[in-house]
Amino acid sequence: MVSYWLIKSEPNVYSIDDLERDGSTHWDGVRNYEARNTMRDLMKRGDVVLFYHSNAKPPGAVGIARVSKEGYPDHTAFIQGKYFDPKSDPENPTWVMVDVEFDEKLPRLVSISELKADPELEGMPVTLPFQRLSVQPVAKRHFDRVLALAKKPAPA
DNA sequence: GCCAACGTTGGC
DNA sequence: GCCAACGTTGGC
Fold this sequence. Notes:
The chain has helices at residues 16-22, 33-42, 112-117, 140-151; strands spanning 4-9, 24-26, 48-53, 60-73, 96-111, 135-137. It is α+β, with helices and mostly antiparallel strands.
């Protein structure tokens, strides 16, 4: 049973092109408990991931990846740097990451405005106001719809 | 760059 | 355990 997810990344930090170049990466630095729980408990190897560019011009869905390694401790919490968390005990890590591997880029970016405007995507979390989770579930029908949109020409 | 929302922090 | 302050998110 494959599940579908959406992960957000700022392209000036880590873009779909970076993932294509790297092949796979560990999804480190997530410091939100709900997103952590999703990665720790729900994301399974082989699950499909919609890669989303946030804080971009324009923001939107840009590619597809797959979960290649299930949740394991995020070591960046233990080393000095922007993801350091002094409260995370290496014996009992607070934070978890998964590995994702590149699958493909969408034929074109499907922007957030297009996602929000599409009636078939009503209720998709990323289109809701103030849905800021960087790792969130996607219904299969929503995922399929985004792919279908990406295969059509961009709206005028 | 603005700013609203919301999660987190920490004093009490 | 309340809650005000603070930091972050992320579209605009």
